[in-house]
Amino acid sequence: MNNKTVYVLVGFLVVYALLMIPGSSEINIERAGNSQPFIWNQDSRWETLESKFSQARSSAVSEEQLINGTLEINELINQLEARNFKPSESLLDSLLNRLFDLAPLVAASGEQLKEFSELYNRSRRVIKEESVGWDINERETRDVLYKTLYGMRAAVEEVLLQTGNEFDSVLYVKEEPSETPSTTILGIKVHSGDLLVSRGGAEVSALISRGNDYPGNFSHVALIYIEEGTNIPYLVEAHIERGVAIATLEEYIKDRKLRFMVMRPRADLPQIRSNPMLPHIAAKEMYEEVQQRHIPYDFKMDFYDPKAMFCSEVGSYAYQNNGIQLWQSESTISSFGIVSLLNTFGVENFVTQMPSDLEYDPQLSVVAEWRSKESLFNDHVYNAVIDAMLVCADQGEKVDYNPFMLPIARLIKAYSVMKNGLGSVGPVPEGMNATQALKNNSFVNRHEQIKESVHEKVEEFRSEKGYIPPYWELVEIAEGTSGCKSY
Question: Is the pLDDT of residue 316 over 50?
Fold first, then answer.
C-alpha cells in the first residue's frame, strides 16, 4: 500500500469519525404546565360490553330491545334539547352510558345501524351547539366534550366494524350555512374556508393522532380554497417533506387518508355575520401567501411564529389574520412518554394546536365525516400500536438508531439541503437533522414490526371468537407484542 493510498484511507476515516460525532441533545422544551392526560380508567366497563356483545351474538336480539334502547336515548336527547345545560349535566353521562349499552346489541344483530349512527349525530349536534356558551378552557368542559364526542364516535365505530353489513362511507352531520364558493369532495359539499381534519396513513400520523392529553382520531389539517368562477378547489396544507404547499383535489385524495372530517365556522359568529365571505378571504390570503414565499415545516410546533408552520397552524394563522382565533383552548401534551417520543422528532412546544382538538372548538360545526370499513380498522390497528409504543416510552424506552449510519445520513442530509436550496424536496425533510431522520426510520420499523404481529394475533382472535377484536383488545394485543404492559 503506497503513501497516497494510506493518506486517502486515513483522511476517509477521519472524516467518517467526525461525521459520527453525535449532535447536541439539549433541546428547549415548552412543557404543558399542570395539565394531565385524560384517562378513561374503565377497563372493566369495556370487558362487560364485550361480554354483552358475545352473549348477544349467540342469542337473538329482539327488535323490541333495539327499539326501546333507541327510544330511551332519543328521549334523553329531547330532554337536553329542551334546556340550557352545563358540562356538569348528569344527563350527559346517562346519554353516553345508554349509547354504550345499546352498541353491543346493534353490533350483534346488524340491525338499526343507520338509526344508531343518527343517535350519535343528533347527540353531537346538540352538545356542539350547547358548548358555545361553555368555557372551553375549563378542565371539566374539556373532559366532558372529549368523553362524550370521542366516546360516542368510538362506540359507533366499534358497531360499524363488528357488523358484517356495509355502510355509507359518508356520515352527514350538520349543513352549516355558508355563502362562499363550493364544490364536492367524495360526495360531501365543501365551501371555501372549510377545514378538512384528516388522519394520514403513516406511522407518524398515528403518533400525532394519539400523542395528546386527549388522544384523538385525526393527525392533519388542510384549509380549502375554492377559486371564484371556476369552483376549482385547492388544499393548502403543511407537509413534513416539503413545508406548506398547495395540492389539487386529485393530489389530496391520492395522498392516503384513513378518514377525514369537514369542519366549518358557524354562520352565527359575529365576524361572519359581519362578513359572510370571511372564510373565503382567509383561505384565499393563505393560498396567495404560499405562492409568494416558501414556508418550511415547523417541527417545533410553535404556532406563535409563522415563519415556519405545521398543519394546524395553517388554518389557525389564516383565520387569526381575519379576527377568528381557532383552538380557543390550546392543546397540551404532558405525558412523559409522548413528550420524549415527539421530542425525538424535534418537537419543542407541548402547549400547541393538535388536529384532533379542533373538533371541540365551539366556533366550528362538524359538517360531515368520511371513513370506510377497511380504513377504520387500519386506523384502529395503527392507533393501538402507537398506544402500546407510548406505554414503552413512559417506561423509559427510547427510539435508538445505528450510529454507524450517521455519517451516511449526514451526507444524505447535505444533499437534501442542496435540493432544498434549488426549490425541490430531498430525502431528508427540511428542518429534520440526520439523527432525527435515522430515529424516524427506527420508529417506523418498530411500528411496522409490532403492527405485523398484531395482524397475526387479530386473525387468531377472529378464528377463536368469531369476531374481530374491539379496540381495547387491540391495545392489549399490541402491548403484549411490544413487551410493555400498562397497569
Answer: yes
Q: CA dist 243 to 79, 236, 307, 424, Å?
A: 48, 11, 11, 11
Q: How far apart are CA 312 and CA 361, in angstroms?
A: 13
Which ranges of 231-334 does DSSP label H, i.e. alpha helix? 249-254, 270-274, 278-292, 311-320
Which residue, 145, 167, 189, sits at the end of a domain?
167
| 477 grid coordinates | 394485543
Residues paired with 371 in a beta bridge:
259
* Domain total in the chain: 3
* pLDDT tens, residue by residue, 262-271: 999 999 999 9
What's the CA angle centered on 207, arms 19 and 421, to 5 degrees?
A: 45
SS3 state of residue 451: helix
Question: Is the confidence at residue 414, as pLDDT, over 90?
Answer: no
Residues 184 and 158 in one domain: no
Considering the domain architecture, whether residues 147 and 287 belong to the same structural domain is answered as no
Compute the average pLDDT of residues 18-40.
65
List all residues 6 or more positions away from 179 whose beta carbon is below 8 Å from its beta carbon. Answer: 276, 277
| Opening angle at CA 212, ends 361 and 170, nearest 5 | 55
Average model confidence (pLDDT) across the chain: 90
Beta-carbon neighbour count of residue 470 at 10 Å? 22
Which SS3 state, helix, strand or coil, does residue 447 take?
Answer: helix
